[in-house]
Amino acid sequence: MLANLKIENVAVIEKAEVRFTPGFNVLTGETGAGKSILIDSINAILGNRTSRELVRSGAQKACIWATFENIPGTVKQQLEKCGYEAADDLLLYREINAEGKGSCRVNGMPATAAVVRDISAGLLSIHGQHDSQGLTNPALHLGLLDQYAQNRDLFAQYYQRYRELVAVKRQLDALNASEADKQRRIEALTAEIEAIDAAALQPGEEKTLQERKTVITHSQGILQGITAAHLALAGDEDGELAGAADLLGSAVDGLQNSARLDETLAQMADRLNELYYNARELATDLADRLDAYEFDPGELDAIETRLDTIYRIKKKFGMEVEELLARREQAAAELETFQSSGKKIAELKGQMQTLYAKAKEAAEALTQNRLKSFAAMNREMKAALEFLNMPGIRFALKHSRGALSSHGQDTVEFLISTNPGEDPKPLAKIASGGELSRIMLAFKSALADRDALPTVIYDEIDTGVSGLAAGRIGQLLHQTAHGRQVLCITHTPQVAAFADNQLLIQKNVRGDRTYTEIHTLDLDGRVQVLARMISGDKVTDLSLANARELIEKSR
Predict the structure, then answer these.
(1) Phi, psi of 223 (to 5 degrees)
(2) What 3-state DSSP class applies to 25?
(3) Over the stretch 103-115, which tens digit does the pLDDT of each residue have?
(4) Is 153 exposed, middle or buried (0-12, 13-18, 19+ CB in 10 A)?
(5) Distance (Å, rounded) from C-alpha 79 to C-alpha 74?
(6) For residue 155, which of 366, 413, 424, 340 has the smallest C-alpha distance?
(7) Which UniProt keywords apply (predicted)?
(8) What's the distance, CA 234 to chain centroid?
(9) In angstroms, rounded to a whole number, what is the distance separating the alpha carbons of residues 178 and 158?
(10) What is the pLDDT of residues 285-344, one digit of tens each?
């Protein structure tokens, strides 16, 4: 249940706090006073899209808090699923800044708008002023019927089988492509495989060849460097130029002789001796490398030819080597599928027959549930509409079975006859605006005991209705609110008279700014407001008496 709504800097509302009660809550006020702003605020707190236009002029941001008490178990489960702690109460917060950006919080913890929508889906529903017009669109009638039927499990069973059937059908359609298209695809796949196989690609080969090419291309410089290093270490073969290793050897002999006379030089002599042997070993290694750098004159040509082959195959397919190898495997698998398509087609046809029979069976179960539910809904709505001063009304269901689709096999449309002796016809051709409002209310009334939502909001459900029918709407809303919460925005005194809790939304101008205030009315306040709704600006003793009588009769 929506217990409390706090608003700051939302449109003309600078600051307001509203306390709602269980039962029937009515919001009244002049046109333009800000009643729709409350609806916009509630929509915002539920995670729906908003705009910066909602922020009061001159304010940096708009803030909305909503407290829900005794939340349903389904909402608690969703809270835990989304990673929030579940309790009996829930606090939602929404902030919108002047740039149109904002943030959401669930029990003080950050949340995305999408998560808030998932959590709040089980809290309340809002029936807007124009929702009744949706009744005139036959495309929406099946959804309304399913909503009453509460057939989620049956629909889920059917939809699962339908999806399986569609998946197999897509495979079969792909295999049943025209023979010419099939042959062209086989030829294209074969050409791809042959081209990739002809290149004899190997993972990592291109990198290895590039490295080898770099070595060969710069071999002259490499050899010169190795030769110079070897000459510096080992000297020349004629002995005319002493190398670093020989010089180190001479240095070792001299230092070792000195170390025999001064033991403190022994450690230095050992270090110098180690340098000598390292130099000799390095000179030998360099000599071995010089012998190894013998290149086949044709090796560079072979490498460049191979790299050109790899470059061309990469350019042809627009892929790297690893991607080409994966492409080859995919093409081979697809080719195998085409080549064995005859057997596969037979298998898929058998699967389709089995799956179609199962989907058809599930669709028929869904159809029977819908037809049975319409009969029950028809009885409830007929009783509700007769109570709402629409006697003699007849509902009918135009139903036909068609091909299986995502929603089943049914096409439905609600038909209505509002006068005895007339055949039922489409709602768009028969029902007036006031009649549509009452039909929608009758549907919501029939749905009330089946819908787990604890709060329903009606935004001017009584549009186009007056007199006895308006009073009956108020009475039905009051009855619907037993055990739950109903919020209703209304301009009709006959509806407002039935309120368990009446709120006045009032607009005032102070200085050059507009301010909207929300007041909870006591009995005297209700009488005054209803009298003004009855007689306009000039409240008379008669209108006050009429207002008091309306309230007393509603009790």
Answers:
(1) -65, -40
(2) strand
(3) 899 998 999 988 9
(4) exposed
(5) 9
(6) 366
(7) ATP-binding, Coiled coil, DNA damage, DNA repair, Nucleotide-binding
(8) 75
(9) 32
(10) 887 777 666 666 677 788 888 888 888 988 888 889 899 999 899 888 888 877 776 777
Q: Please give the helix or strand (H or E) that residue 503 lies within, else none.
A: strand 501-510
What pTM value is reported for the model? 0.60
Higher pLDDT, 265 or 329: 329
pLDDT score at 406: 92
How far is Cα 94 from Cα 401, in angstroms, rounded to an integer? 46
pLDDT of residue 122 exceeding 80? yes
Distance CA 372, CA 377 (A): 9
pLDDT in tens, 47-101: 888 888 888 888 889 999 999 998 888 888 988 988 888 888 999 999 988 887 8
Q: Which of 145, 157, 167 is nearest to 359 (CA)?
A: 157
Q: In angstroms, rounded to a whole number, what is the distance separating the alpha carbons of residues 148 and 142?
A: 10
- Annotate 100-153 with DSSP letters as a single string: S-EEEEETTEEE-HHHHHHHHTTTEEEE-TTGGGGGG-GGGHHHHHHHHHT-HH
In what helix (H) or strand (E) does residue 156 lie, and over which residues does it extend?
helix 152-175
Report the distance separating Cα 29 and Cα 33, nearest Å.
6
Residue 139, pLDDT score: 86
The token pair at 270 is: 């050992």
More confident residue, 175 or 526: 526
DSSP, res 55: B
Tell me the three state secondary structure of residue 386. helix
d(CA 168, CA 176): 12
Give the residue-averaged pLDDT of 408-425: 86
3-state secondary structure of 509: strand
pLDDT at 147 over 80: yes
Task: Tell me 93's DSSP state.
Answer: E
What is the side-by-side order of every strand in the sheet holding 513-520?
Answer: 124-127, 455-459, 485-489, 23-28, 501-510, 513-520
Strand arrangement of the beta sheet that strand 425-426 belongs to: 394-405, 408-417, 425-426
State the CB neighbour count (10 A cutoff) for residue 315. Answer: 9
- Quick check: 136 and 465 in contact, CB under 8 A? no
The letter for the amino acid at 272 is: L
At CA 39, angle to CA 38 and CA 44, rounded to 5?
A: 95
In 144-211, beta strands by DSSP E: none
Sign of CA pseudo-dihedral 360, 362, 364, 370: negative
When mean pLDDT is compared over 13-27, 274-288, 526-540, the highest value belongs to 13-27
Instruction: For the chain, report the end-to-end CA distance as a whole number of angstroms.
Output: 23
Strand 61-68 versus strand 2-10 pairing type: antiparallel
Q: Please state, for a pLDDT cut of 70, what percent of the chain lies above it.
A: 92
The span from the CA of 458 to the CA of 478, in Å, is 12
Other Cβ atoms within 10 Å of 432 Cβ, number: 11
How would residue 352 be classed by pLDDT, with cut points 50, 70 and 90?
A: very high
For residues 15 and 371, the model is more confident at 371
Residue 176's SS3 state is coil
Q: Does 187 score more than 80 pLDDT? A: yes
> What's the rounded Cα separation, in Å, for the pair 386 and 377?
14
